[in-house]
Structures are given as structure tokens and as C-alpha cells.
Design a protein that fits this description.
The complex is a heterodimer of chains A (about 450) and B (about 325). With about 450 residues, chain A is α/β, with parallel strands linked by helices. Chain A is built from 19 helices and 16 strands. In chain A, α18 runs antiparallel to α19. The radius of gyration of chain A is 25 Å and the shape is globular. In chain B, strands 1-2 form a two-stranded antiparallel ribbon. Chain B is mainly α and about 325 residues long. Classes of the chains: A alpha/beta (about 450), B mainly alpha (about 325). The interface of A and B includes residues 108, 254, 259 and 404 of A.
Chain lengths: ~450, ~325
């Protein structure tokens, strides 16, 4: 080979490599139909996924039904979602772990409004519980659909109640009673350190959403059109939580918490009898948690109690959970919509969420006997879904940033004794102009 | 030129002018062809992203919609953003404390590992091993070691009568805990120092010994100056690495609790990541990236300038 031929060949080789590397933009991407006889591939990304194999098997059923191959990636890491949505090769259907991102993504044009897909797929919107659906509503628009959902209630350890001289069958009926009982259930060592704690308000994570609803408000107005981060219910909710830390000392509680076993292990503090009451989700009573990890645990579940002066707020829950979106860059929108319709059918919702012991978003699915088989404790959550005080997390395009700031405020109030009103006023002052600008007010 | 002594010009030949013959042109083309993978990579994946991020830093740009040109608004907004200053302070804390401390400890370890003792190779392996432990695994391991109730560190402290802190749950101790983690994995710096120590000419040490210099004097007047270029290298790379501190803080924060407790682990790169990928504020994050680039550039230039006074190059 002479020098000239070598150079030409090398250039051609380089060019072909480059084209291969940079190509793809104009080809069928996630929905591949690379030739006659080859199967179409649909890609589904799911942000959560405790049982990837089970969920792939579920979607294989759709594959067999529609004559396509469905590739499920679960769980997908958070930081892969945005690059995929902005790039040329997003998944055909994306399941987000919460509704807070959906509105931000819609505002940026990253996901589609779903009215068309709902109509084409004959998705029965009347069949959906309103609370989880409300997190997908943006005015008259629907930017996501709730697939499964979670609700939180109060768990109490009956043995610890008995040991503290309390009636094991009577959980607290009011928030005030809960504080009193928590005191009775707290045991300290001779050196002042905590041996057993009655109730940690932000364990395992923040539950301010539930408390603030019990105090009669939220950090947005009910229609999501105003920011109310420093409203009285918010101040009350954080002051109520702060008292637990004030009474027993932040360092003392933090040191006690640091010795807790891993979440989802037999040593988790509620299972191990270190914490007498906790706010937790419905999955705890399902086959993957308490019945498997601590079957002998003697416990009860009830709705979180309201304040004594507002008994009408009994049965308050705040739904949050997985939502399905269709990326605006999805190649075959019809295929995405068909898959979405199949996912939202009551049978599939029942199958998926029975398996994982999560709450269904479909009323018909909730009647499936498989949920009854999950036991009476699970039924407490199913009943709460139909409660007149069932709410969903209110989400707006500013949710991520605001929630992060509120989490910081909660930390400052609970762990440093910061004044709730002053701290929340600062959040309101910082975010109100941004919120108004984003909402076009 | 006329002031130069004549002898310096003896034998001096100016470089020949490049004559672009057919052959040299062909050689140039072939050379460029072989260079092209790197050049393409540089232009496509380094220079272009840098320039486009500079453009974005002057825009409101979230992700998919067209950027909106806003001149210096992102930069002026950053100046009034409390979290920007908190993240910068946290990062400067790490640069000011963790980097010098790491250099000092690495140098001491390298000195020890340079001693001709039995089992020298074994000790070197032991000191180097932590640096090949993946960052995530090492961080999780440290979270357990520093657990206030069941962790090894506080258990040992308790044995000697010290009430150990709450480490990662206490904003006053979270950064020192991360510094400890960093020092555990300093094997790479130790190896570089060790190679520098082995390059210190034995003749100088022996001459100093003959002149009656003790161990400390030999260390101060010979070893430290002779490894000063290594110190400068480790200082600059350590400083740049610390300005970009991210992975450990991300693991500690568990993804959705970044910066906890009380923003004490909110480092510059962590806040930049939050803005870009969680709050979808790409323009704002780009402005942060450029401010970081300028800070690192200025500090590196300053260090290089100041280093003339304490860096000694042999030969």
C-alpha cells in the first residue's frame, strides 16, 4: 500500500468511526425497527425498582400482547433522567418516583401533556383516586398519570405501650395525646442518654407535609397558585415537631439515632423496639417488610391523629408516589400512549402494586381481592385513600428548589432551635418573587 | 544582541526555515491524521462544552427551550445567593485545611516508608491500598467507622475517656470527618512523594553527614528543598481536586439530602450539581462553573508565581 492510499484509507476509516459515534439522531432511536421481521423495541425507565426482574416480567406481558419487545431499566439513577430527556434518545415511557419533577419537566417542554394519550387510550379518569391524580393536574392540563401511590399512617408498638402502662389497643387520638404518650414511652439511661424513644417526628424522613395538613394548610394554597411557606399551619407544624428536640436535646437524639439499624433490616429501630411510634408507609405491612423482617412484632396501624381542636381532620393523609410521563422526544408517540394505557389499566395496576404492597391509584384495582389478602393493616391505608381528608403533595415547577430550601429550614428549626416563624418568613421572602415569576403572576 | 559576549554566538545556528516541500506537506498531513483522534476529542468534548457553557452562563437556560440572553444576571444573582457563599466557604475550608494537612501527612508517611526497615514493601502496600478502594465504598465504610454509637472511632475514643462527637450529624464535625476520610486515601500522594525522596542525591546527604548535620538539619536543608517540586505538584493538583470535591459529599448526602447537616457539606460542586440537574438552572450552574474556573486559574497562577521562592529544581 502506497502512502497516498494509506492516507485515504485512514481518513475514510476515521470518518466512518466518527459517523458511527455521532450518528443516531436521524435513525429510529428508542423505538427501533431496524429491518423487516425485526421486533420493535420500547424502552421504559423507572426511577424506583426494588424488584427489577418482576417488573420486566410484567412488561413482557405487554410485549407478548402487542408484539413488541419492552426493555425495562429499573431503577434508573436520577442524574441520567435529565440528560436523556434533553437528548435525542429518551425512553418511550418514564416512571418518576414522585410528581414534583413532572411539572418542572413539562414547563421545560421535556414531557408531553397527556390529554390526547388519555383520550386515545380510553383511560378511565373517573376510576382514579382524585388525591394522587391531583399532583398531575396543571390547570386543565394533565402532565402525568399516577401509577402507584403511597400514604403514611401512625405505627405503634403494642408491647412497648403495655410496658409503659398504656393501653396497647389505644393509639393516640390527638396530636397532643401523641406527645404525652411519647413522653411516657421514652426511657433514658442513668447517664442521660436515650434508651428508648417515644416518637421522632422526622424519622426516617420529613413528614411535615402530613403534620401541616393536620394543622389545616400546606406550603402552597390548595389550588397551587400561591406560596404559603410562612402560613400559620406551617409554623404550627414545625413548632410541634421542634418540641421533641427541645425536650430531649438535639445531640442526645442524634446520638441515639446514629445507633439505629439499617432501614429495611431486622435491626430497624421500630422493629428493634427502640422507637415506640413512627409515621410510615403502607409497604411496611406488606410481605417485604415487617411480616418478613420481624414477623413477631406486635404492632398496630392507624391514621395519624388530628389536633384536639380539629377532630374533623381525622383520617388525613398525603399521597405521593410514582407517576408516568411520556417524554416529548419519544419517537413513536402512539406506541408510548398505547403502553401508557396498558399500564394504567386496573388489572395491571392491581398486579404491580399488590406484588409490592403499594397503594393502587385505580378504584377498580383497589377492589382486587389481592389487596384484601395483604391484611387488615393494609386495608387501613386503602380506606384512607377514600378519606375526605386525603390530599396529594401539591407540586409546582419550583417544587425541587423550594422543597430543598424547606428541608434546610426544617433542619435549622429542629436541630438548632431556630425560630420557626423567622425561618419560614425568610423562605417566603426568598421564594415568593421566583414563584410569582414562574407562575406568570 | 550587541551586548552579548562574542563567545556565546560561536557555533550558534538559527533554526532552518521550514520549507513546505511536497514531502513535508505530506508528513504534516499524516501527522495531523494521527493527532486527529485527540484533536477531535479536544474540540468536541473539551473546548466546545467550555465555550457553550460560557455562552449559557450569560443566559437563562433550563434544558430544552432556547436560552434567553440576560447578560450578567446569573453572576449578579450568585453574589446575593447565600447558598453560593456557603458552598464556597465550605470548599475553601477544605482547600485551606485538608490540602496542607494531607500534604504534611503524606510527606511524613513517605519519609517513614522510605526507611530501610524489614517489611518495607509490605508497609508500602498497606499505605497504598486505601487509595484503590472505590470512593463510594470508602465513604460508606467511613460512615460506619464514624458512627457515634457503634463506630470504631468513637469506641476507641471512649476507651481513652473522650466522648466522641456525632461526626456526620454535627455540622461542626462533618467536614473534619470528610478530611479524615481523605487522609485515609492519600496513598497516591504518598507514592509521588516516595519517588521524589528516592531521587534526592545520596551524595548531598552524605556530604551533610560529613559536615556534622543531624537528621533534622539534613531533612530541612536537603530533603525538603529537593522534593519541593513534588510538593508544588501535589499542592496544585490537591487544590484543584479539592475545589471539585463532590463524590464523597454526594454519598454522605445520599442523593436527596445533599449538604446535610445544615449545609455543612454543601460544597461548590455539589451546589453546582443541584442547580444544573435538580433545579434545571443550567445557565446559573454554568456561571458557577466559570467562577470556579477563574478561582482555580488565579490560585494556580498565584501558587506558581510564589513557588519560585521555595521550589528548587536540580540541574
Amino acid at each position: 500500500m502506497n502512502r497516498k492510499s494509506f492516507s485515504i484509507l485512514s481518513i475514510l476509516l476515521m470518518a466512518s468511526m466518527l459517523l458511527t459515534a455521532c450518528g443516531g439522531g436521524n435513525q429510529p432511536t428508542s423505538t427501533e425497527e431496524s429491518g423487516a421481521g425485526e421486533q420493535k423495541v420500547l424502552r421504559v425507565w423507572i426511577q424506583w425498582g426494588d424488584n427489577p426482574q418482576q417488573i420486566q416480567e410484567l412488561f413482557d406481558k405487554y410485549g407478548a400482547l402487542a408484539g413488541v419487545k419492552v426493555e425495562v431499566t429499573a431503577p434508573i439513577e436520577d442524574d441520567k433522567v435529565l440528560p436523556a430527556l434533553t437528548g435525542s434518545n429518551p425512553p418511550d415511557v418514564l416512571v418518576l418516583s414522585g410528581g414534583d419533577a413532572a411539572k418542572s419537566f413539562y414547563k421545560e417542554g421535556l414531557v408531553d401533556e397527556l390529554s390526547g394519550a388519555i383520550e386515545d387510550g380510553n383511560i378511565d379518569m373517573e376510576d382514579m383516586f382524585e388525591a394522587p391524580l391531583s399532583q398531575c393536574r396543571q390547570g386543565d392540563l394533565i402532565v402525568c398519570l399516577p401509577w402507584g401511590t403511597d400514604a403514611y399512617a401512625l405505627f405503634w408498638n403494642k408491647d412497648l405501650f403495655e410496658a409503659a402502662g398504656l393501653d396497647p389497643e389505644k393509639p393516640p387520638a390527638t396530636m397532643e395525646e401523641l406527645v404525652e404518650m411519647a413522653d411516657q414511652l421514652t426511657i433514658t439511661n442513668p447517664d442521660g442518654s436515650i434508651k428508648q424513644f417515644g416518637f421522632i417526628p422526622d424519622f426516617d424522613w420529613s413528614h411535615t407535609d402530613l403534620y401541616v395538613r393536620n394543622f389545616g394548610g400546606f406550603w402552597y394554597s390548595d389550588d397551587g397558585s400561591a406560596l404559603t411557606a410562612n402560613s400559620q399551619p406551617m409554623i404550627d407544624a414545625l413548632t410541634w415537631q421542634q418540641q421533641f428536640y427541645t425536650k430531649y436535646g438535639v445531640d442526645n437524639i442524634q446520638a441515639f439515632r446514629s445507633g439505629f439499624g439499617e432501614y429495611g433490616s431486622p435491626d430497624a429501630p421500630f422493629y428493634a423496639g427502640k422507637v415506640a411510634m413512627m409515621v410510615e408507609g403502607e409497604w411496611q405491612v406488606g410481605p417485604n417488610f415487617i411480616p418478613k423482617l420481624k414477623p413477631e412484632l406486635n404492632y398496630g396501624v392507624t391514621a395519624f391523629p388530628p389536633p384536639a381542636d380539629h377532630p374533623e381532620r381525622a383520617g388525613t393523609i398525603v399521597n405521593q408516589g410514582t407517576v408516568v410521563v411520556i417524554p416529548s422526544g419519544a419517537v413513536d408517540k402512539e406506541a408510548s400512549a398505547n403502553l401508557l394505557a396498558w399500564m394504567m389499566s386496573p388489572e395491571i395496576v392491581a398486579e404491580e402494586f399488590c406484588f409490592n404492597a403499594n397503594l393502587p391509584t385505580s378504584k377498580k384495582a383497589a377492589e382486587d381481592p389481592c389487596f384484601v389478602e395483604l391484611g387488615d393493616k393494609f386495608q387501613v391505608f386503602v380506606d384512607l385513600m377514600a378519606s375526605p381528608n386525603a390530599y396529594a403533595m401539591i407540586t409546582t415547577p419550583i417544587s425541587f428548589e423550594l422543597n430543598d430550601a424547606l428541608a434546610g429550614a426544617e433542619e435549622a428549626i429542629l436541630y438548632t432551635g431556630a425560630d420557626p416563624k423567622e425561618t419560614l418568613d425568610a423562605i417566603q421572602t426568598e421564594f415568593e418573587p421566583k414563584f410569582k415569576e414562574l407562575m406568570g403572576q | 544582541m550587541e551586548n552579548l559576549p562574542e563567545r556565546n554566538l560561536v557555533g550558534f545556528k538559527p533554526p532552518p526555515k521550514t520549507v513546505w516541500t511536497k514531502r513535508t506537506k505530506a508528513d504534516f498531513r499524516t501527522g495531523m491524521l494521527f493527532l486527529s483522534p485527540w484533536l477531535i476529542g479536544f474540540f468536541a468534548f473539551t473546548l466546545y462544552p467550555m465555550l457553550i457553557s460560557l455562552y449559557y452562563s450569560f443566559t437563562i437556560y433550563h434544558s430544552k427551550r432556547s436560552p434567553e440572553w440576560v447578560w450578567f444576571q446569573n453572576y449578579t444573582d450568585l453574589m446575593t445567593d447565600d447558598k453560593f457563599w456557603i458552598s464556597l466557604n465550605n470548599t475553601l475550608y477544605m482547600v485551606a485545611i485538608a490540602v496542607p494537612l494531607g500534604l504534611f501527612a503524606s510527606f511524613i508517611c513517605a519519609l517513614l516508608l522510605n526507611l530501610k526497615v524489614r517489611g518495607q514493601a509490605f508497609y508500602r502496600v498497606v499505605y497504598f491500598l486505601p487509595s484503590i478502594v472505590p470512593t463510594v465504598a470508602g465513604t460508606i465504610l467511613f460512615l460506619w467507622l464514624l458512627n457515634p454509637q457503634v463506630g470504631l472511632v468513637n469506641t476507641v475514643l471512649e476507651k481513652i475517656g473522650i466522648d466522641g462527637p456525632n461526626w456526620m450529624a454535627d455540622p461542626n464535625w462533618s467536614k473534619p470527618a470528610l478530611i479524615l476520610l481523605g487522609m485515609w486515601g492519600m496513598g497516591g500522594t504518598i507514592i509521588i512523594y516516595l519517588s521524589g525522596l528516592q531521587d534526592v542525591p545520596q551524595s548531598l546527604i552524605e556530604a551533610a553527614e560529613l559536615d556534622g548535620a543531624n537528621w533534622f538539619q539534613r531533612l530541612w536543608h536537603i530533603t525538603i528543598p529537593m522534593v519541593s517540586p513534588i510538593t508544588l505538584f501535589n499542592l496544585i493538583t490537591g487544590m484543584i481536586g479539592m475545589f471539585q470535591y463532590f463524590a464523597q459529599a454526594y454519598v454522605v448526602g445520599g442523593g436527596d439530602s445533599l449538604g446535610r447537616p445544615l449545609n455543612s457539606t454543601l460544597f461548590y460542586s455539589v451546589y453546582l450539581y443541584q442547580n444544573a440537574f435538580l433545579f434545571l438552572k443550567m445557565g446559573y450552574a454554568s456561571a458557577m462553573a466559570w467562577i470556579l474556573f477563574i478561582i482555580i486559574l488565579l490560585l494556580t497562577l498565584l501558587l506558581l508565581k510564589v513557588s519560585d521562592r521555595f521550589t528548587h529544581y536540580s540541574g
